[in-house]
Task: inverse folding
């Protein structure tokens, strides 16, 4: 089964975010084994960077505002290409400090979901929803309209 990792800094404290994450993990379980690795928040992004890099496996996709913007269909195509090659991949969500340049340089893809800034806890939900949407697009499901 395809392996997808999500490396993120910090824990989700709010129950409503945890509930949404759990729902999307359940939905994604029919397509892939999705593992979330939470990294402890550091005093700065440099401190977080080494822990992030140690947790990354396979292709690395760093979520950062200066990254490229994909439509949902383009993300689905990217995920399908990785899945067809049997490649494990890791999405990285930084803390409120962002991501260190070391992490961005290591990434195979820098991806931006918007020019806006989102709370990193909400970004986890948005990412999982878009992954679910990508799998539904690739499978011909009716979820994506």
Result:
């Amino acid at each position: 089964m395809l392996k997808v990792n999500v490396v993120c800094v910090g824990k989700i404290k709010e129950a409503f975010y945890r509930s949404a994450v759990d729902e999307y993990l359940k939905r994604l379980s029919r397509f892939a084994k999705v593992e979330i690795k939470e990294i402890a928040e550091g005093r700065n992004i440099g401190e977080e960077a080494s822990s992030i890099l140690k947790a990354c496996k396979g292709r690395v996709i760093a979520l950062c505002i200066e990254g490229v913007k994909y439509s949902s269909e383009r993300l689905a195509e990217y995920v399908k290409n990785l899945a067809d090659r049997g490649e494990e991949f890791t999405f990285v969500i930084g803390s409120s400090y962002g991501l260190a340049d070391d992490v961005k340089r290591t990434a195979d893809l820098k991806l931006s979901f918007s020019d806006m800034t989102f709370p990193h806890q909400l970004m986890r939900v948005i990412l999982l929803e878009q992954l679910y949407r990508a799998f539904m697009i690739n499978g011909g499901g009716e979820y994506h309209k």
User: Anything to note?
Assistant: Helices lie at 15-28, 45-55, 72-84, 101-106, 120-138. The first strand starts at residue 2 and ends at 9. The mean pLDDT is 95.
